[in-house]
Design brief:
By secondary structure, this protein is an alpha/beta fold. The chain is built from five helices and five strands. The chain has a single domain (about 5-140), classed as Response regulator (Rossmann fold). It has helices at about 15-25, 35-45, 65-75, 85-95, 110-140; strands spanning about 5-10, 30-35, 50-55, 75-80, 100-105. The chain has a five-stranded parallel β-sheet with strand order 2-1-3-4-5, with helices on both faces. α2 (about 35-45) runs parallel beside α3 (about 65-75). The protein is elongated and about 55 Å long.
Length: about 150
């Protein structure tokens, strides 16, 4: 699809590998980390823009909420995966700013529905911002729109 990488944050190695394979099938590069700290480092220190961040919600030492908040601040779309299908967890995930709640185990179809929706939404907004920047520059330099 594009050269933009997505970020996968998942403690369970098997789930992480499965998600990487699903994105690779769509020719989407991914970077994966197994801990919240690594994800926060990648998001906060590098200020790297990831179109989509896919994260677990419950980790041994932290909550995925920190990842959701950091990713949303940078404009990423966020999918939260969780084996906890309780309605309260779903509410907490969405209240934290996630775009999708994906209960585990999930089907390939459910994964792609959430993923492709987030991916398309991110790039739609990205293109709108670029058009607005171009219009502003044209206006600043007195160039007429065509």
């Amino acid at each position: 699809m594009t050269g933009h990488a997505i970020l996968i944050v998942e403690e369970d190695r098997n789930v992480m590998i499965s998600v990487e394979k699903l994105t690779t099938r769509r020719k989407i590069r991914s970077e994966a980390v197994r801990h919240v700290e690594g994800a926060l480092s990648m998001l906060n220190i590098s200020k790297r823009r990831y179109p989509v961040v896919i994260t677990d919600w419950r980790f041994n030492s932290n909550s995925g909420e920190e990842v959701v908040i950091a990713a949303r601040k940078l404009g990423s779309q966020v999918i939260v995966m969780s084996g906890d299908e309780e309605e309260e967890t779903r509410r907490m995930v969405l209240a934290a700013g996630a775009n999708y709640f994906l209960p585990k185990p999930f089907t390939t179809e459910n994964f792609y529905a959430a993923f492709l929706s987030c991916y398309a939404f991110y790039f739609d907004n990205f293109l709108k911002m670029q058009v607005e920047r171009a219009r502003k520059l044209a206006q600043d330099y007195g160039v007429a729109e065509v």
